[in-house]
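Reviewers of the previous submission asked for a worked example of the structure-prediction workflow described in the proposal, so we include one complete record here. The input consisted solely of the amino acid sequence. No template or homolog information was supplied to the procedure at any stage.
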Amino acid sequence: MTTNDTTATPEFPAGTVLGYPRIGPRRELKKAIEGFWAGRSDAAEVEAVAADLRRRTRTRLAELGLRTDVPAIPSAFSFYDQVLDATALLGAVPARFADLADADGRLDLAGYSTVARGRGEDLPLEMTKWFDTNYHYLVPEIGPETEFRYASDRPVREFAEGLADGVLTRPVIVGPVTYLALAKATEGSPEGFSPIDRLADVLPVYATLLRELRAAGATWVQLDEPALVSDSVDVPTERLHAAVAEAYRTLATQIPADERPAILVAAPYGDLDEALPLLAATDVDGIALDLVRGGLPAEDVPGLAGKVVVGGVIDGHNVWRADLGAALDRLEALRVAVGPEATVAAGTSTSLFHVPHDVEDEPALDPTLRSWLAFADQKVSEIATLATGLTEGGLAVKDQILAADAALATRRNAPGVVRPEVRERVAALDEDAFRRGDFADRKAAQADRLQLPPLPTTTIGSFPQTPDIRKARAAHDRGDLSTEQYEEEMRAEIRRVVELQESIGLDVLVHGEPERNDMVQYFAENLDGFAVTQNGWVQSYGSRCTRPSILWGDVSRPAPITVGWTQYTQSLTSKPVKGMLTGPVTILAWSFVRDDQPLGDTANQVALALRDEIADLESAGIAIVQVDEPALRELLPLRAADHAAYLDWSVRSFRLATSGVRPDTQIHTHLCYSEFGEVIGAIDGLDADVTSIEAARSKMEILADIADAGYPRAVGPGVYDIHSPRVPGEAEVTELLEAAVKSIAVDQLWVNPDCGLKTRRYAEVTPSLESILAATRTVRATL
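From that input alone, the workflow returned the following structure tokens.
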């Protein structure tokens, strides 16, 4: 066995970031890859756009103060998803897509895209949330039969590309333990098999990659292992820790130091806790700690001597300007904790791909608000400042610290940050505000009012946002279209959507949300205490981006938001129309939320605004109101010990929003990417009359959790995966519905797509909905 004790560790910068936005300031990559999928460009053109974007990123990070002669700048690009990239690296393509790979297991861009998006009857990889973020990754499918080989040298080529430009980057790859911990077993795997069992077969591929990177000139590599900060992954903690020891004994100890780059293991999104001494005991060369979500390590952790320890003191999750003085103090405290033989560097807590590019690209934001914010570029500058402070002392960055202090003081005292009338209303709440009547009584009253057939059909809310809708919105924003003209165009679209739903035969209709650019931003634009951006794009999954709103002050509703549109829609049909709202937890999860008060307090402010909106919908005669909470599972803390407190305030905020209605008003909710079993108690606690949940891509895996829990209220397990361009056939949907009927009582079942239809085209949506209705009629006939 070879050890690295006597080998000098390559120089590491005093400041670095764990990753950077990769979609482009103007979503250049999105436009390029979607053009490729649509046949408007070829792979070479997409590669050229991507190479230019990577070059511009390296240049920009250097301009902002990151060094280019040591690996301060990460090489962390992806065309779609970093976990899919690891699948491509390992050649671990599911058998149904094996024909897409060449003889060496390599995927070209078309094949890579197909694995992500599916084709014909071949379902794409399942998609789920990346830890507690709003980013979605593609779940690997690993079985005893999966073959692994070094099938992609893209990390090496992209490193070489930077080196040719004079920039020594640090390649970033999902670590082997996290990759397998997040994977699911292939169908037909033996009982008791776990993908982590294949670790010994995966490590040789990582070893080959490390040697290739070293040969290309890489001095450091970053292996992301966020699974180590979570006990929510589907691997027992003891097994996870054993895997860490095995992985880094193989990669850091058994590979001679002169044959591999130095290894930085990054553990974002939480506290390593007991995994830190375990990781420190290995021969990895550096560890990146999240000091925003996690605490300082105990002093004298064995094994940290001689290592680089990156203190993640700049929040990669949120957009608020840092308290630079406090951050520098925390780094100095980290120095004390790890001891004089360790090297401390300043870093971000997570990759910066969770935040937009540049706050200076937001001229429409109020200048005072803008002074409180730090997007990715500003965070890089903060890191450069802290690096100087670490190397030259606090006096060298006194002016920057004072400027940050002044901005923080302005924020604390600005009008609207605290509104007494909002806080008094929250303080006056009693327990009756969080309770509805008995569910059995509600169920009977709603059945009498709605008169729906067995297996009632509906959609989740949005319909495709056509080019005409987007053009009208843009024209209205520019002032080229009057408000009256714009609203008439939206009413015309609503009429088309209602006519389509009635022609297909849906039982409960929606207005399609043409007036909404985004399910959170639309409400942020109409609530006090929020601001919205023009160019604040953040990648959600693949080529899909969102612009999270900024929740900066106390929240209230100055006027009704959705009532007019919903009331107009109901006037067009005799069938029930759902009022469509976004729930308080999701509004928080998909916004950048103030960090100066507990989330539960902010959630209750939002909930009261929604409660007022629901009361107005009910007064307007709307019988069904859907309050979407797709992010309920997303915000669940990564440590089980923290679940109860989170679920308490999140469930209570939903109930506060929805508990003021009559028994015969039906409350729906919708959940995305939820491991239903993990939060079944919370979903029960929401007390919604109907809960729809994504299920198509996982082939109704959630049914067992629902049945085992004895869930008493109605559920709508999705039968159409809207995150793929595939159009499901009637037989496919029938099979899913038949499985649902076998597991759940018929009087509890609704039929719906997995999620809203906004991102799809009518050419996909219409035949898919027709398949759903045909399958529903077939199954109804058997009841």
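The mean pLDDT is 94. We consider this example representative of the routine output the project will generate in years two and three.
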